[in-house]
Structures are given as C-alpha cells and as structure tokens.
Write a structure and sequence with these properties.
This protein is an alpha+beta fold and 687 residues long. A hairpin with a 2-residue loop joins strand 17 and strand 18 (668-669).
C-alpha cells in the first residue's frame, strides 16, 4: 500500500499527460467586456491582471478553502508574478477563455497567488512541484485538496492542455475521492519529512565543496549546467569568497567565463545597464526580458566584488551600469526601489529592447553591427535582433561604450513605449540593494553610492520597521508581516552599512531585528526558522533552505547570527550555537547541491575561518577604514567610530586625541597601532 501511495502523484501526472492529445481547443472568448471578479479588490498588480477573467478567482484565504470543503471540490492554486511573461500568456489565452472558466468554476475553487507577496505559499508548492515532476517554474499551477494539500503540479499549459488536466483530475476525484485524499496525505507526509530534521553535525569540508562545485558548473560558457542560464547570484558571490580562502585556478577561470559571458550576452542591457531575469539558451544570448530588482541588486554587488578580486575594469563598468539601471529605472522618488519591470511593452515581448538591421543601420556604425551580431534575418524572432556581444573582446566592448552611437541608440529607444513596472517596494529586495551600493562604494570609494545605501536604509528603517517592537513589514504602507527573508536581509544590509559608516544605529538595529527574528520564526521541531510567523494557513510550514534567485532566508539568518555573536559576544554568544545547529541541518544539502547553497557555504566559511575584526576608534576612524579597505578581503570585519558605544569589542579602546587601530580575532586583539600600513600587515599574519 505504501508503494502504491508513494507512486500515485506520478501516476496521476502520467494519466493527465496521456490524455492531453484527446482534447482540442474551444475558444469561446466573448467580445463583450468581462465583469470583474474578486481580485479587483486586491492591491497586487499580478492579481489585478486576472481581475477581468471569467474564472471566479479567490485571493488566498479562509473563504476559498471553506467553500471548497462545503462543496466538496478540489482547489486550483495558480501562482505567478507581475513581470512573468508566460503568466501573462496563460492569462490571455487560457484564463480569459469562457470554456476554461466554466470548467474551473463548476468543478473547482480557484485561487490566485502573487509569489512576491506570499513567498511562503510559493515555496511550499514549488517544493511539491519539484517532488512530483522534478522541476518548478512560473506560472505554477497546482491542483490540491480542500485543505491545500497538492495532488498535481505543473507550470505553463496551453489552453487545450489545461482543459484536459482539469477534466481528468476532476474525473479521478469523483470516481475515487478516498484514494485521492489518501495520496494527498502521503504527499504531505513526504514533504514534511525533511523539515523535521535537526542534523547530525557538520562533516563537509571546503575541499569537498571545491570538487562538487566544478562538477555542477558549465566550464565551457559559465553558469550552472542546463539548457537555460540563471545568474544565481548567491552562488557567484560565494565562489568569489571561497576562492579567496582556497585559491583555485579552475574556479577562477569558471568565474571569469560566467561573469564575462553573462555581461556580454543578451541578458545585459547594453544601453542603460541592468540584467534581464535569465537566458533562454545555454550560451547567455537570448533573455527573458523582465528585469527584477533582486537580480540587479545582487549582481551589482557581485561585479563590484569581482572588480576588487580580479582588478578588471570591465567588471567595474558592469557594476556601475547596473547601479545606473537601478537609479534611472527602479528608483521611486519618495523612497525605495520598485520590484520589477515587465518583459512586454505594447503587447510585444522584448519589443523595447530588440532591433532590426535597418534600425541600427540608421546610425551608420559598422562596429555596432559587428559587435552585437546584427543581421537582416535577426538573431531572435521576426527579424528582430537581441543585442549580445558574445565572442567579442571586452576591450572592444568597452571602447564601444564610450562611443557617441551608444548614446544615440539609447536616445532612440527612450522614445519607445517603456514596459510597465510593478511598483511594490519589497523589504528584502531593497535590502539587497543596500548591500549592492555598499559593495560598489567599497570598490570605488565614490560617496554617491554610499549615500544611496544610507538613504535607502533610512527609508526602510523609517517605513518598513516598527521601532517599538522591531517587527518588519513585507512592503511599505502595509500591515502584512514580513517574512524570514525580510528580517534576515534587512539585518544583513545594516551590518554591511555599519562597517563603512560606523553609525552605531545600524548595528544596534541589526541586532534588535535579529533578536525579534529569532523569537518570531523559531520552530520547535527543527533547527531551522520558519518562513512565516503568521498562523498556519498552509498544509505545512515552509522552511526556506535553498538559494535560487535570492539567498535562502535561513542561510542569511545563519550568517547574521555568526557575525553578530562575534560583535555582541557578551550577550549573544548563543546565536553562534544556533547557527552551528542550522548548518548541521543543512550539511547534506551542501553536499548534494552546492550550486544552490552558496549562502550556506559563505556561513560555513565564516564559521571555519574566523574573520579579522579591525576595530578603529578616534576622530579619523572613517578615514582609516577607507585606507585599510584595500582589495578584496572577505576575511575582514570593520567596526569602530568616534565613541565606544554598545559593541563589546570596542569597550575601553578609545584613547583621547588619537585614532587607534586594533586587529582582533576570536575576541583576542594584537597590540594597538596608529599606523595604517602596520595594521594592514597584521591582517595578513596568523594569530
């Protein structure tokens, strides 16, 4: 019986797929205006996109599940986000079809979810999809029982295929509801199994990770192996740090291949900077054109770090161009950065970014045609050309960026209808932007970038943080509680900002937010933190562990706990013990999927290779910090200022009339010095 139960979701999936060819499309879309459904009252632009569907959509909530229970119906849970191109296609071609709507309205209760508003819901069902089918993506479409337990998972469906899925799943449920419910229980138990693990210790070594990383990487063109390429910024950031501690020519070569091809390729906006979400091919040439804040915030930091590590001006250009994209396309005048920019303008995917040969020929510049592989036939669709410079040298590319023709083409593009934006201001994504601006400031010492980071931190702590109880909201002006990722990422950004400003408010706020996080998201059955502190409205709690487009909330929390335990060792030493427990729980995950556990590996590096704590006190503390912040040194934590404040490591170190530098490690300090060069030499010597 157990074997039968375990295989049932896969049999259900096979049965559904097997009958897809038996159905044909019946597009009975009506010409008249479609009345609005319940989603018209929502604030999410993604939900509002579906507010005129004839599908009787519900937002996530008790009402939908109570209706499903009272009417003994299965539930459709459809998850996506505003900038998702295939979400938009399915909305127009499938959910606007009255035949599809009748199937859904008669036999199901249908729920729409914005994954950016509810990452906890998204994670649970994405995990279910991976277990059932081996992959997940968006739109993510789930058929579930009336308590939300998944039975079937898939992504994008054409109209007739979705009709077939709906009819087959309903038929199976009507024929044998008891078996369906039993299989749902089996699936739920299987999904819950991992989250109950506490771990048996940390036995993975950095040497183990070295070989595993190379085995999962595409050493020909860069990135993680696969037919599509995502930037996976936590992976790249971790590799940069890892190769500092364990120099490896093969990993360095791979890093350069990835960074070069990704930036020269079609994902990068060569006119105004910034990256699209991912490449639809393995060679980084043709993107899905939506731009996401979280990608660009992280890649700004990654390329700034790469510039410091490899001293390559190309990487600095990409980092600064990405910052330019954020400041000119994402920044909101009243504070914060928008979440995403759509791939579609004037109902044409990528229309804002692509060019015909004749359009480029107007500029009478043969170098541009050659550099970006422009042809009459086009390198994409319908004679259109994506601008990608793969195969060109970085030197030729940088020379082109200084030419007048770049500005002329950008000027022409600016007269096109720009793609719409999702104007949510999401806490964790904006916190990533703070870290990006801090990284770029450290690479350039350009105070304009530091000011952007400080202004954004001031905005977030003033509008997304309740100073009375240190609770964090998901978005501005919202009563929605923040998720683990929002707490962990905001705290991390304030830690990074403190190190270059010595403003005590930032580090004290980071400590207070982390203390609230530990209390709010703690779970009894696991070493990990829950994704949400809300009441249990899911069939299971979610525990984010893997990095994908964003750092794992748990991994970021673990890194924060390690750093803050070092800085506040007199009151927060137990936080390091908690981080060790978390890393132990993820030990096997790091062994199996190092490409998706980069932030965990950074935490492991920090644990096994304690940083130098460079404490600087006196009137010249900030100037000395700038002078010491040379090159790429992920093994240094800066702290200090003009007063000792509340950080224990600074106690009794201020000397009147002098600026003194203390190089410490594991709460032990070398003899203080006022000489910057001598202090830097100390950071190169073992204790």
């Amino acid at each position: 019986m157990m074997k039968k139960n375990d295989s049932y979701p896969f049999r259900l999936f096979g049965l559904i797929i097997g009958i897809l060819i038996l159905y044909t499309s019946c597009d009975s879309r009506k010409e008249q205006e479609v009345p609005q459904n319940r989603l018209a009252k929502e604030s999410s632009l993604y939900l509002l996109q579906h507010s005129t569907n004839p599908v009787d959509w519900y937002p996530w909530g008790d009402e939908a599940f109570e209706k499903a229970k009272s009417e003994d119906k299965l539930v459709v849970i459809s998850i996506g986000y505003y900038a998702c191109h295939w979400c938009q296609v399915m909305e127009k071609e499938t959910f606007m079809d009255t035949t599809v709507a009748k199937l859904m309205n008669d036999s199901y209760v249908s729920i729409k979810v914005d994954r950016e508003e509810r990452p906890d819901i998204d994670q649970v069902y994405a995990d279910a999809a991976r277990k059932m089918t081996g992959s997940a993506g968006w739109p993510l479409n789930i058929i579930a029982t009336s308590d939300g337990t998944p039975l079937f998972a898939g992504t994008y469906f054409e109209n007739e295929d979705w009709q077939a899925v709906l009819q087959r799943a309903d038929y199976l449920y009507q024929e044998n509801p008891e078996e369906i419910l039993n299989q749902a229980e089996s699936m739920a138990a299987s999904l819950k199994e991992k989250s109950s693990l506490k771990g048996q210790g940390i036995d993975i070594t950095l040497a183990d990770i070295e070989g595993l990383w190379l085995s999962q990487s595409d050493t020909t063109v860069g990135g993680i192996k696969g037919t599509q390429k995502f930037p996976n910024s936590p992976y790249l950031s971790a590799l940069l740090d890892f190769t500092y501690y364990r120099p490896n020519k093969d990993l360095d070569k791979f890093l350069k291949q990835t960074l070069d091809n990704m930036a020269l390729g079609g994902m990068f906006d060569h006119l105004n900077g910034g990256f699209a979400r991912y490449s639809t091919d393995k060679d980084w040439k043709v993107p899905h054109f939506e731009k996401m804040l979280y990608d660009n915030a992280q890649l700004m930091a990654v390329y700034a770090k790469a510039y410091r590590k490899f001293n390559d001006p190309f990487y600095l250009y990409i980092a600064e161009s990405t910052a330019n994209c954020l400041l000119t396309e994402f920044k909101r005048e009243s504070g914060g950065f928008y979440s995403s920019i759509n791939a579609v303008s004037n109902e044409v995917e990528g229309g804002y970014y692509t060019w015909t040969l004749s359009e480029i020929q107007e500029f009478d510049d043969a170098a541009t045609l050659k550099l970006f592989n422009i042809s009459e036939a086009g390198n994409w669709e319908n004679g259109q050309n994506v601008l990608f410079a793969n195969g060109s040298t970085k030197q030729d590319y940088l020379a082109w960026t200084k030419s007048d023709v770049k500005a002329e083409i950008l000027s022409k593009r600016s007269r096109r209808t720009s793609p719409p934006k999702d104007k949510k201001i999401i806490t964790s994504w904006n916190a990533l932007a703070i870290e990006g601006f801090v990284s770029l400031y450290r690479a350039t010492q350009n105070t304009a970038y530091l000011n952007e980071g400080k202004n954004l931190a001031t905005y977030l702590t003033g509008n997304h943080l309740n100073s009375d109880n240190n609770s964090v909201t998901r978005t501005d002006g919202s009563l929605q509680n923040g998720f683990l990722q929002d707490y962990a990422q905001l705290s991390a950004s304030l830690i990074s900002l403190y190190q270059v400003t010595f403003n005590l408010n930032w580090i004290e706020s980071a400590e207070a937010i982390t203390a609230e996080m530990v209390e709010r998201f703690n779970a009894d059955n696991t070493a990990l933190f829950k994704q949400s502190s809300a009441k249990d409205d899911l069939f299971m709690a979610s525990y984010p562990t893997l990095d994908s487009d964003l750092p794992s909330g748990n991994a970021q929390a673990a890194e924060n706990l390690i750093l803050l335990a070092e800085l506040f060792y007199d009151t927060r030493s137990e936080w390091k013990d908690k981080a060790v427990e978390m890393l132990s729980a993820e030990n096997s995950e790091m062994q199996v999927a190092p490409a998706f556990t980069g932030k965990w590996i950074q935490s492991l590096i920090q644990l096994q290779n304690p940083s130098y704590e460079v404490a600087i006190l006196g009137s010249q503390a900030r100037n000395y910090q700038e002078a010491l912040d040379l090159g790429f040194r992920p093994d240094i934590i800066f702290l200090g200022g003009t007063a000792e404040g509340s950080v224990p490591l600074l106690a009794n170190k201020l000397v009147d009339g002098r600026t003194t530098i203390y190089v410490c490690q594991n709460k032990t300090c070398k003899f203080p010095t006022e000489d910057v060069e001598e202090a830097y030499r100390m950071t190169l010597e073992p204790f």
